TrEMBL record:
<dbReference type="InterPro" id="IPR009288">
    <property type="entry name" value="AIG2-like_dom"/>
</dbReference>
<dbReference type="Pfam" id="PF06094">
    <property type="entry name" value="GGACT"/>
</dbReference>
<protein>
    <recommendedName>
        <fullName>Gamma-glutamylcyclotransferase AIG2-like domain-containing protein</fullName>
    </recommendedName>
</protein>
<dbReference type="InterPro" id="IPR013024">
    <property type="entry name" value="GGCT-like"/>
</dbReference>
<feature type="domain" description="Gamma-glutamylcyclotransferase AIG2-like">
    <location>
        <begin position="3"/>
        <end position="132"/>
    </location>
</feature>
<dbReference type="InterPro" id="IPR036568">
    <property type="entry name" value="GGCT-like_sf"/>
</dbReference>
Length: 136
């Protein structure tokens, strides 16, 4: 499955250069509906809910790099399956390609439940769901 990235792992961003560059087969603009983007210290969080759209990129790994890239992104997002201290959960969601609206199933790191609750209670969503614009 491809990955949907919406923050520091997007093409042109620091973590893309460090961890994804040269390991992907394709990268294309996409968006995730049913999530709202919130700022966090250093990186954004997609919080699932009925409203909102998050802008990002659909990244398809080179087959030989897939397993390592999945593990790298999990480490980057501090995600360990089943760990209640996680900041993110990795979930499979439908993501729409911006070019034609085609839905593609992809891995997405979303805010873990405790983080999501704190963000909803204390933070302001990023208007328009676009981290690149908000981070300038």
């Amino acid at each position: 499955m491809p990955f949907f990235v919406y923050g520091t792992s997007r093409p042109g961003a620091l973590n893309h250069t460090r961890f994804l560059s040269g390991r992907t087969r394709s990268e294309e603009p996409a968006h995730l509906t049913g999530a709202t983007l919130y700022p966090g210290p250093g990186c954004p969080y997609a919080v699932e809910g009925p409203d909102g759209v998050v802008t990002g990129d659909l990244v398809t790994a080179r087959p030989e790099a897939y397993a390592d890239l999945l593990a790298t992104l999990d480490r980057l997002e501090e995600y360990t399956p089943g760990d209640p201290r996680d900041l993110y959960d990795r979930v499979a969601r439908n993501v729409a390609r911006t070019a034609d609206g085609t839905l593609v199933r992809a891995w997405v790191h979303v805010a873990a439940p405790a983080v999501a609750a704190r963000l909803r209670a204390r933070a302001r969503p990023i208007a328009g769901g676009e981290w690149r614009i908000a981070s300038r």
